[in-house]
Specification:
This protein is an alpha/beta fold. About 25% of the residues lie in helices and about 15% in strands. The chain is elongated, with a radius of gyration of 27 Å.
């Protein structure tokens, strides 16, 4: 530079060409012919696969450009890397036509969905989020909570209105490489205020965790014999791909599902966790040791014995209703009404049990009622069995007055579909414990999935799990314990196992 006498530092060793134009959704002139806009597709035309590195910094005009890009698999395949500054809620002039009629929530929802859609063809390789957070000082900048709320932000309050993000085309990154293929999820932000489970819900808040990033190792929870665990589950990847097939949508939906099922609330906001078998309960949501008027437990699918309803009856002094239409009555004392009922305080313990000559363990200190019905999306009779809806049993109940457990072997999805369509019913539920089944073909689901292929059915189920996050926090799952029992190296040493309907990137 010195020898050539260059007064400025900009210098290109390899040829470059300046183009006096802006990037837009249309090829057009604006501002009376003073500003030319051209599409990304125009400049990708004729290029080969994986032949182009792209950078965008358009100050809010990127969304319609990206919308066109994600609609074209051909154009996406041409891009090796994509680097962008993204701007949420900026109201750029070039976006006016695309967002006409949308309010601020609609505009930002559109932008988030566009960013999510890029994940079909690209991996995220980095962002400036952490550095931006290092420079954010809410304690000094907003000591009296006088700052404007950003149009989009994390649970901890950090703004996501503008940041830089880098992508690489998935065709360039092979996920066969063992631990390098593993994807884990963000842990809850520690030490920051989060909404209380028993307080007013955060209207419209999407609690999905950030996009996953690679994690090579993690540790299983120590000293915890329970099946359900709070916090981010440790899910190490398989060292080799264990399945006969590799269907991309099963992985992509699995990554979305893992986000939806990852606990995003810590011990502080919950006042600790009560761990019992397959449940991780937020203590703030549980009844006290003495009976609380108006609180009821609803347990759908109990089989022979239901420890969930017994625990609410005996430990939390909560009356319960138990439901099942499959188990033969002679095999289930609770369903047949022969289990000791409403015995009173300590009536199911040690000496009291002996004094009453109880020969079996089923026992309820607080009243329970058996209902010979299954849970379904409609009140009807199917194959000789009675089905009743969840809203039937929530009708007339007050807000936050019902603990609900659902274990109905694949019949849960249409029930959940009705539930998330009713804010009123969701607001009545204090805690929701479920066993979820993906890809099951339950008879009660036939009408709801008619015409859907396997991908459509699983996608519907994942969307329903995501839909619950609008009103509920995830407090725990059994995923980590299930991973501890999965041994792909011995179970599938020759990659002979059937690929599950939905799974993580690690298998």
């Amino acid at each position: 530079i010195e020898e050539r006498g260059l007064p400025i530092q900009q210098c290109y060793e390899t040829a470059y060409w300046p183009v006096r134009t802006c990037l837009g959704a249309k090829n057009e002139m604006r501002k009376g012919g003073e500003q030319r806009f051209e599409t990304l597709e125009t400049h990708l035309r004729g290029r080969g696969p994986l032949s182009t590195h792209v950078k965008m910094n358009l100050q809010g005009s990127e969304w319609s450009v990206l919308e066109q890009l994600i609609a074209s698999d051909e154009d996406q395949h041409k891009i090796r890397t994509l680097d962008m500054e993204v701007n949420f809620g900026s109201k750029a002039g070039s976006e006016v036509e695309a967002t006409n009629g949308l309010d601020i929530e609609g505009r930002v929802t559109r932008e988030v969905r566009i960013l999510e859609a890029l994940l079909k063809k690209f991996w995220v390789t980095g962002t400036t989020l952490e550095v931006s957070r290092m420079g954010w000082m809410p304690a000094s900048d907003c000591p009296t909570q006088q700052c404007r709320e950003p149009v989009v932000h994390t649970v901890g309050g950090f703004t996501l209105e503008r940041f830089d993000v880098s992508f690489v085309n998935k065709k360039l990154v092979n996920l066969d490489g063992g631990p390098a293929a593993a994807y884990a999820f963000a842990q809850p932000v520690q030490g920051l205020p989060m909404p209380s489970v028993v307080g007013a819900p955060v209207g419209g808040l999407d609690l999905r965790a950030p996009v996953p990033w690679p994690a090579v190792s993690c540790e299983y929870m120590k000293g915890n014999p329970q099946s359900s665990r709070p916090g981010r589950p440790c899910l190490p990847p398989a060292n080799v791909w264990p399945y006969e097939t590799r269907t991309p949508w099963k992985l992509e939906l699995g990554e979305r599902l893992l986000v939806a099922a990852t606990p995003a609330i810590g011990e502080g906001p919950c006042g600790g966790f009560e761990l019992f078998g397959d449940q991780s309960w937020c203590r703030k949501a549980l009844p006290s040791q003495s009976s609380q008027p108006g609180i009821l437990g609803l347990s759908f699918g109990i089989e022979e014995r239901d420890m969930w309803s017994e625990t609410f009856s005996n430990q939390f002094k909560t009356p319960t209703k138990v439901f099942d239409c499959f188990i033969p009555l002679e095999k289930s004392p609770p369903m047949s009404g022969t289990a000791p009922n409403a015995t009173g305080h300590a009536g199911c313990e040690g000496k009291a049990r002996e004094d009453r000559h109880l020969s079996f363990s089923h026992c309820y200190e607080t009243a329970y009622w058996p209902v010979r019905a299954c849970l379904g999306s409609n009140s009807e009779t199917l194959e000789g069995r009675t089905y009743e809806t969840l809203d039937t049993h929530l009708r007339g109940r007050q807000p936050l007055s019902a603990h609900v457990k659902i274990d109905v072997d694949g019949s849960e999805w249409s029930v959940l579909e009705r539930l998330i369509a009713s804010d009123e019913d969701m607001d009545k539920i204090r805690t929701l414990d479920m066993e979820v089944h993906f890809g099951f073909r339950a008879g009660s689901e036939r009408r709801a999935v008619e015409g859907l292929d396997a991908q459509g059915r699983i996608q519907r189920e994942v969307k329903l799990m995501e839909g619950l996050l609008r009103k509920f926090w995830v407090t725990g799952t059994t995923l980590e314990v299930h991973r501890m029992g999965w041994t792909p190296e011995t179970d599938c040493p020759k990659q002979t196992c059937r690929q599950p309907w939905v799974h993580t990137a690690g298998g």
